Amino acid sequence: MAKNNDGKKQIKAITSPKTPRKYERVMDAYDLCRILAKHGDRTAFTYYNKNKQIYSISYVRFYNRIVRTAAGLTKYGLAGKKVAIIGETSVAWLATYLAVLVTGGVAIPMDKELEINSIIGLLNSVDADAIVYSDHFNGKFTDEIKEKSCISTFIPVDPTDEELAHSKTVAYRKLRADGKADVDAGRFSLSPVADREKMAEMLFTSGTTGTSKCVMLSQKNIFSVVTSACETVDFGPDDVIVSVLPIHHTYELAVMLAELDYGAQICINDSLTKVLKNFQLFKPTGLVLVPLFVYTMYKRIWAEAKKTGQENKLKLGINSSRALRRMGIDKREALFGEVTKAFGGRLKKIICGGAALNPRMIEFFDDIGISIYEGFGITECAPLTFVTPYYARKIGSVGPAVPCCQGRIDGSGIGSHGYIEGEIQIKGDNVMLGYYNNSEATEAAFTEDGWFRTGDMGYMDDDGYFYVTGRLKSVIVLENGKNIFPEEIEEYLSNIEYVAESVVVGRQCGSTVNLVAIVYPDLTKFSRDATANEIYAIVEKAVHQLNHKLPSHKQIKKIEIREKEFEKTTSKKIKRHLVK
């Protein structure tokens, strides 16, 4: 990338008109419920019911469901208690989450992909009082229901007869019906949240009881992020969003709460195998994704162009569009309408977070008329910290700090980009209360002057935009003392068409540390009868060409080919700690 005379990198910027934000500031769950009721008959959710039929629910009906669930929790002695929620994204999940918060309780979103023993172990570690679960978990809590457990109440959303045979079980439908009776009789109504600074949510940072830390968030943390998202993200009441990411993940949940504040329509994807089909069905105007989904969409576009013989036409169209836009003429909708039909034909914007995104993706999707806004967050910050403004994007940057917080760089050395590089640290209303029953870890997570240590390295430019360069824990220290962030090298590798995924590690060889690239190849780029040796040779040649463009200390000394994709978290991040 070119540099200015002062040695600082020139960053490509994309500007758009700044438009008025259409949302109401929200302080807590009670406040959000008030706003939901005001949205009235607008469609809140569209989804597949259990009979696989498309069903919609209005905002006012969703509001009523929250109130009845809150009344039911109160009737069964669960107001103010710790209530876990596990299952697929659903209206019941969201209604329960908000009902727990609005009754002063503590919501515990759980990862549905965890082993049942891990789920029980984590819930026991925080003394959970109840759990609401989808039919996927029917029969899986039988031992816990029968035996003595900290969990006093099990609430299946769609129970079997066997499930209901136990005294500790209350069907979600009955809890809601009993709540409705109390509401109708005037025995229950929502009350303002008494203390928005006490613990309201518990989130586990990883999947095993031995290594996980439990993040404690308050309603102040949660809803400061919701308001900040509404202020900085280019969504609005007329948008249709398809929810793809797991709802227990704080990134998806926070943005969905912001979408509800806007009054947008949220369509729930029922299966990862049907994502593209559901895009065509629901015709979203916006999406909230992690990079893996963006890469999948990118590959789909080029694979389809190649299959239909339109590859050169697409390249020509992009070049023509760029030339026209430089003259102030935007013909992207006409030129690429057939391309974007694969995603419903109305898609205009994507929020991308959870991991670093190759800047090429932002440029390509912008070329065809889809804006990508990259952000940065961490669970301990509820999670949003930075997002690139829709009206002033800088490619490669995660943007300035959102309104509820501020960021800084803790470092002294000047990086190759011309700015001070160091750990990214955060201070603000979104920063967690601490780790549950872990004062040592809580103390280590903060600086002496009260800033949260993200563990991510990066730099800030002259305009206050932040750039993430890698994880502090994954840094590779060479024998000459130079620090290598593997994420940077992996980004270069992602530009090689034969590479689907990669992880770069440092391997000790005598007194030398060599950079080794472990590559899962994009098999669609090879002939079906290509041998392992032929694939290796092609990838090796491409990596060798890449090395010529890199300084000697960043060059890859060896590659290894994987036969399977890397193991990932439910938020589609590679579990790099498993790669040796």
Query: What does the largest sheet look like?
Result: 8 strands, mixed
**How many beta strands in the DSSP annotation?**
26
Distance between the termini: 31 Å
Average predicted local confidence, pLDDT: 92
Strand content: 15-25%
Low-confidence runs:
none
Class based on secondary structure composition and strand pairing? alpha/beta
Q: So what's the overall shape?
A: globular
- Number of helical segments with 4 or more residues: 17
Strands of the largest sheet, in order across it?
Answer: 3-2-11-10-12-13-14-15
**Proportion of helical residues:** 25-40%
Radius of gyration computed on alpha carbons = 25 Å
Annotation keywords:
580 residues; alpha/beta; eight-stranded mixed sheet
In short:
By secondary structure, this protein is an alpha/beta fold. Helix content is 32%, strand content 24%. The model has no long low-confidence stretch (mean pLDDT 92).
How does this model look, in words?
- The protein is α/β, with parallel strands linked by helices and 580 residues long.
- It has 17 helices and 26 strands.
- The strands form seven sheets. It has an eight-stranded mixed β-sheet with strand order 3-2-11-10-12-13-14-15, sandwiched between helices. Strands 5-4-6-7 form a four-stranded parallel β-sheet, covered by helices on one side. Strands 17-18-20-21 form a four-stranded antiparallel β-sheet.
- Helix 5 links the parallel strand 6 (130-133) and strand 7 (153-156).
- Helix 8 crosses helix 9.
- The chain is globular and about 75 Å long.
- It starts with 12 loop residues before the first strand and ends in a 19-residue tail after the last strand.
